[in-house]
Design a protein that fits this description.
- With about 550 residues, the chain is an alpha/beta fold.
- About 35% of the residues lie in helices and about 20% in strands.
- It has 19 helices and 25 strands.
- Strand 24 and strand 25 form a beta hairpin.
- Helix 4 crosses helix 17, helix 7 packs antiparallel against helix 10 and helix 9 runs antiparallel to helix 10.
Length: about 550
């Protein structure tokens, strides 16, 4: 089979105005970035609010493994499949980050014959949204230290500054550092560091803002540190929000591209689910709901992170109600959760599949707590045997789950039609249950953290470390006690230990740090050794990326 980039490059793309026309978007609202990419005018999208809203389908997955699950590929394949069976579906994805693109994970535009294109542009600079987010974030960081340097009012406690810098790259050397060396003319010495841009509060704000006015208001509310009386200082106090909004004005408009089969896809925003809230922009999701009959969006990594945050943060803030969930699983990944080594996954192993199924069952149990109907998408690999596929479907049926074997990676939308039809039946039928959140706004912050850890991660004990409880109490005293919680933890396990596979229970779940994201509207609770600035592997993917003799990019995956 051809590589992803070879498949993408061989495709004949339609003019982006034709894709927009299928959604009845007027030409004057399509802001083209070449022939195959466009931004959609924000004022036009605001005008859609009075139009009927379509159905919302969330795609999430089992706990990821090196064997691969294919959540984004399934999202794209499902969108193509819905359109093949006569439904007007719009796909909503997050934008790829350069960090994983050059690191371990690779690109994030789907794969095989279920991709969004143009693949190279989407995976690299795209329309510059991430550059704008990084610039706006670091402008605020620069203005904070400048404010302190000149002793402007309000006078800040330089040791209280909590706002770190960001860059859209995996660079472990930037995690912790001393900045401001070189004498008074070069600033003042203090500890600082960088997070990756996808962990930036500015990224979260852009993805949760309803419009430009809301964006500016949220930027003003970013807490950057404390004054000398230990009162919180917001970005509004140093007059940074206006310039930040100016940098983000175009980035707030969602990007329209197409799948290999010429179906519309909105790609906008890109917070990671292991260190941020893991959902594409609210503006893009709402636009898709008004532009089509069905909006299909993803939240990654596994459902313990992506789906929980989609429900408890995004849906809570935006008053959204998902109509169905797709839980993506593979035979390979489940066998790995069942104890099979990566090198041996090609061999049939029913016993390991049965053992690893506990991971899928755990995610399904968790999703049921939110009152949303779930269908399992079995993303088929060539090494899967018919016996294994039959067994997995039987296991799903044994706990009341419907499932569909999908071959969209090799067959495009045709390979996900069975999944689309099963979802259509759910979307067309009256709801059997009502959507609900995991915890109420008024629950104390530590209790919210405990609820997620015990109800979703199945922890036995949640342990606060250092000054965590003191900080949470101060957040509540400052009026932020009603905010939801975004837990940053490893994506590789329900626990805080990435080596604890399958469905661990009764484990100790440590919370080492909490951060207030007042502008985004949630509290970040960091667990275990998870890093908000990843590092590169021994041999990063960047080693294989180059330009060939025809000036084409090669090596992207």
């Amino acid at each position: 089979m051809l590589s992803d980039i070879e498949i993408a490059r061989a495709a004949t793309l339609k003019p982006i105005t034709e894709i927009a026309g299928r959604l009845n978007i007027p030409d004057e609202s399509v802001l083209s970035y070449g022939h195959t990419i466009a931004k959609l005018d924000g004022e036009y999208l605001n005008s859609l609010s009075s139009k009927p809203r379509g159905k919302l389908v969330l795609v999430s997955a089992i706990t990821p493994t090196p064997a691969g699950e294919g959540k984004t590929t399934t999202t794209v394949g499902l969108g193509d499949a819905f359109n093949r069976i006569g439904k007007k579906a719009v796909i909503c994805l997050r934008e790829p980050s350069l960090g994983p693109c050059f690191g371990v994970k690779g690109g994030a535009a789907g794969g095989g014959y279920a991709q969004v294109v143009p693949m190279e542009r989407i995976n690299l600079h795209f329309t510059g949204d991430f550059h704008a987010i990084t610039s706006a974030h670091d402008l605020l960081a620069a203005m904070i230290d400048n404010h302190v340097h000149w002793g402007n009012e309000p006078v800040m406690d330089r040791n209280s500054i909590t706002f770190r810098r960001v860059i859209d790259m995996n660079d472990r050397m930037l995690r912790n550092m001393v900045i401001g060396l070189g004498g008074k003319a070069n600033g003042y010495p203090r500890e600082g560091g960088f997070d990756i841009s996808v962990a930036s509060e500015v990224m979260a704000i852009l993805c949760l803002a309803s419009d430009l006015k809301d964006l500016r208001s949220r930027l003003e509310r970013i807490i950057i540190g404390e004054d000398n009386d230990h009162n919180p200082v917001a970005a509004a106090k140093i007059k940074a929000a206006g310039a930040m909004t100016a940098l983000l004005k175009d980035a707030l408009q969602p990007n329209l591209v197409q799948t290999l089969e010429g179906n519309p896809a909105l790609i906008h925003g890109g917070p990671f689910a292991n260190i941020a809230h893991g959902c594409n922009s609210l503006i893009a999701t709402k636009a898709a709901l008004h532009l089509g009959d069905i909006a299909i969006t993803e939240a990654g990594f596994g459902a313990d992170l992506g789906a929980e945050k989609f429900f408890d943060i995004k849906c809570r803030q935006a008053n959204l109600e998902p109509d169905a969930v797709v839980l993506v699983a593979t035979i390979r990944a489940l066998k790995m959760h069942g104890g099979v080594a990566l090198a041996d996954l090609k061999n049939e192993n029913i016993a390991a599949l049965e053992t690893g199924f506990a991971n899928l069952a755990r995610h399904a149990e968790n999703l049921a707590k939110f009152g949303v109907k779930t269908v399992v998408a079995i993303n088929r690999f060539h090494s899967d045997t018919e016996t294994e596929l039959d067994k997995l479907q039987d296991l799903c049926a044994s706990i009341g789950l419907d499932s569909a074997v999908c071959t969209h990676f090799t067959d495009g939308g045709a390979g996900a039609e069975d999944l689309a039809r099963k979802l259509s039946a759910i979307l067309d039928a009256p709801k059997e249950d009502s959507f609900r959140l995991l915890y109420p706004d008024e629950m104390p912050l530590w209790k919210k953290i405990e609820t997620i850890a015990k109800e979703i991660y199945r922890a036995g004990e949640v342990v606060p470390q250092g000054a965590v409880l003191k900080k949470l109490k101060s957040f509540e005293e400052q009026g932020f006690g009603d905010l939801p919680v975004c837990i940053a933890k490893t994506q590789s396990s329900f626990s805080a230990d990435p080596k604890a596979k399958n469905a661990p229970t009764g484990h100790i779940f440590p919370i080492r740090e909490v951060r207030l994201n007042a502008g985004a509207g949630f509290i970040v609770a960091i667990s275990g050794n998870i890093m908000t600035m990843p590092g590169l592997p021994r041999h990063p993917a960047a080693e294989n990326i180059d330009i060939n003799e025809d000036n084409e990019i090669i090596g992207l995956a």
